[in-house]
Request: fold
Amino acid sequence: MRNPVAAMRGIVTVLNTPFTEADTVDLDALRRNIEIALEAGVAGFLVPAMAAEVDKLSEAERLAMVRTTIDAVNGRVPVIGGASAADAESRERAARALIDAGCPGILASIPYTDDASYERHVRALADLRPGFLMLQDWDFAGYGLPVPLIVRLFESIEAFAAIKIEVVPAGVKYSEVLAATGGEIHVSGGWAVMQMIEAFDRGVHAVMPTGMHAIYTEIYRRCAAGNRTAARALFEHLLPVLAFSNQHLDISIHFFKRLLWRQGIYPTARVRPPTLPFDTIHMQIADELIDLVNELTP
Reply:
């Protein structure tokens, strides 16, 4: 079986949403971020996802971000459109819009209750004929989808080519899914950047962090070249940043938007409410860590 996204290896960046002072989406700033990421060597883009504050975006804003990304990328790497939604009807509507916009692939998070209902929802998305379908195996309190179900769906649904694993513990799940599919399914890590070296040790195809494109791609290049010691050295220099930003998704969004603002890429560090507070002490620490990021950037 030839996986259509087999070549998508390394860093697939998840784009934050840039907001103006008037709280509109700044598509020109998004283009700047995309171009910088491409110059750094990212392998793909995911938009919009949780890091994009997707639940706070209108359908029109979501689609505008996707269309802008597809246009800016211009076929250089895959663009994965986020089709996750609160219910099946909304999810399928979002998927149709992404496919119609020319998105090469779609990502969907489908709540799991039992194998049969989950498979029905997956097949409904596959019937829309996306270029490829990536499922989000998301469970911050448990082990997520049963591995035998993942294998059965991968073997029987042609569109299902990739899975984004975000479970506890993610590392063992990476290895089990890769082993059970003979390494054929594309496996990426999501909320697991703290275990990036472990992920590459286990053979994942990609990880999906936010921002810091040049640092992340350099870590991957060192791993891919067999220079694990150098990859780990750079990664360990980055750990204070990851320890701070990974406290909570909201803190991560605040931090990386502040980074992009400080770097002159985004016009503001604005985060739409509701969100956890990001106070003056947070900002002080963030600014210290942003200085570190800028020092580490190749």
Q: What stands out?
A: Residues 85 and 222 are 37 Å apart (CA to CA). The beta strands are 10-14, 44-47, 79-82, 105-108, 132-138, 160-166, 186-189, 206-207.
